[in-house]
Amino acid sequence: MPSSPVFQRLGILLFVALIIWVTATALLADLSRVGALLLNLTPSWIAAIITSVLFNYALRFLKWTYFLRCLNLVISWRDSLWIFFSAFTMVLSPGKLGELMKALLIKSRYGIPAARTAPIVMAERLTDLLGLILLAGIGFSRFTYGGMTLEIVTVLVVGGTLLITRPRFWEYLDRHFLARFPRFSRIRGSLKIVEESTTNLLSLKSLVITVPLSAISWAGEGVALYFIFQALQVTRPDLLGISLFAHAFSSIVGAVSFLPGGLLVTEGTLGGFFILAGIGRDQAVSATILIRAVTLWFAVSLGTLVFLSGRRPGELVSMDLPTPSTNT
Q1: What distance in Å separates the CA atoms of residue 118 and residue 107, rounded to the nearest whole number?
Q2: What torsion do the CA atoms of 100, 102, 106, 107 make, to the nearest 10 degrees?
Q3: What is the pTM of this model?
Q4: pLDDT tens digit sequence for 276-314
Q5: What is the pLDDT of residue 34?
Q6: 274-302 burial, b if ≥16 CB within 10 A, otherwise e?
Q7: Is residue 316 part of a domain?
Q8: 64 phi and psi angles, rounded to 5 deg
Q9: CA dist 114 to 3, 92, 107, 314, Å?
Q10: Other CB atoms within 10 Å distance of the CB of residue 39
Q11: Mean pLDDT (whole number) for 126-130
């Protein structure tokens, strides 16, 4: 028996409430430490750090726009910006799965089935990981840290990307899973739409464009970490390399941990590498707290402001939820 739209909306509300609670709890725990550290930074350093983070967001938005064009979707620039940044409110969802709200917002404003647009979020995450792996791989040749983890994640991400772009994968999923369970047979049409979108988004041409773009964009946050070290008066000839590798590798570990926002895992990986690289304990801790503040917490704050400023009454909660197609 299909689930009631009332319970579907209740599920969305509960999920959003959980993310808000996790975000607020973690933010309050860091607030006093972040505030004290920020007071020690000059306005010019803060501007340089934020600019580097915004550089990352700008290139990721370009990738989002490219993916929309891959699916021949026409969305106004204003709505596209709003949808892209609104998803930042879900940064603390496990694996950033909450960013699937992009598909719901597009459905709400343009009536485009979520099955067609949800693969964009998957493509974003996969190309982000591939870009970060590229950055970390370049740094690994110099720092030889976390090699086993990097190899395993590379095999899983590359293998997974190749798998989901093969028609046989979707045929197997349809024949041996959906077709066997009557409850899931109604979404077989939606599965075909997901397959078509995924194939377009992760084509060789698309990957050649989006993976290097992802690497460059995430390097922006690595540069932000470099500026933080500079502001903390850390001086080393290999500081930029340390910053780029540490940020990329810790982001990979945080992503595959599937913890909300990679909390604790990302911080632990960053701090451990900094100390191993010979950076003082106090400076390592301060840099870890600050980079998380200007990436994680800044993203959540920016996303919340953008979402609230552009949200229409009842959007995301009272909208019609996507209904799976029954076509086969």
Answers
A1: 10
A2: 20
A3: 0.84
A4: 888 888 888 888 888 988 898 899 889 999 999 998 876
A5: 55
A6: beebebeeebbbbbbbbbbbbbbbbbbeb
A7: no
A8: -55, -45
A9: 17, 22, 6, 18
A10: 7
A11: 97
Q: Which has the closest alpha carbon to 219: 247, 242, 238?
A: 247
- The span from the first CA to the last CA of the chain, in angstroms, equals 19
Helix or strand holding residue 102 (H, E): helix 101-110
**Pair of tokens at residue 78:** 């204003």
Q: Is position 145 within any domain?
A: yes
Is residue 94 classed as helix, strand or coil in its secondary structure?
strand
Residue 315 lies in a domain: no
Evaluate if residue 122 carries a pLDDT over 50. yes
Note the pLDDT tens digit of each residue in 26-41.
444 454 555 566 667 8
Residue 260's DSSP bridge partners are 94
For residues 134 and 207, what is the distance between their CA atoms, to the nearest angstrom? 13
Measuring CA to CA, which residue among 67, 71, 68, 105 is closest to residue 85?
Answer: 105
Amino acid code (one letter) for 224: A
What separation in angstroms does the CA of 73 have from each of 112, 191, 308? 9, 19, 24
Range of the domain at 90: 45-310
The dihedrals phi and psi of 94, each to the nearest 5 degrees, come to: -55, 125
Please, are residues 128 and 59 in contact by the beta-carbon 8 Å criterion?
no
Q: Which two tokens stand for residue 13?
A: 């509300």
What pLDDT score was predicted for residue 322?
42
Sign of CA dihedral 141, 146, 151, 154: negative
For residue 327, is it within any domain?
no
With residues binned 3-state (H G I as helix, E B as strand, rest as coil), the percentages for the chain, rounded to 5, are 80, 0, 20
Residue type, 245: F
In the chain, the number of structural domains is 1
What b-and-e string marks burial along 207-216, b requiring 16 or more CB atoms within 10 Å of the CB?
A: bebbbebbbe
What is the rounded average pLDDT for all residues in the chain? 83
Find out whether 27 and 268 touch, Cβ atoms under 8 Å: no
142: amino acid identity, one letter: R
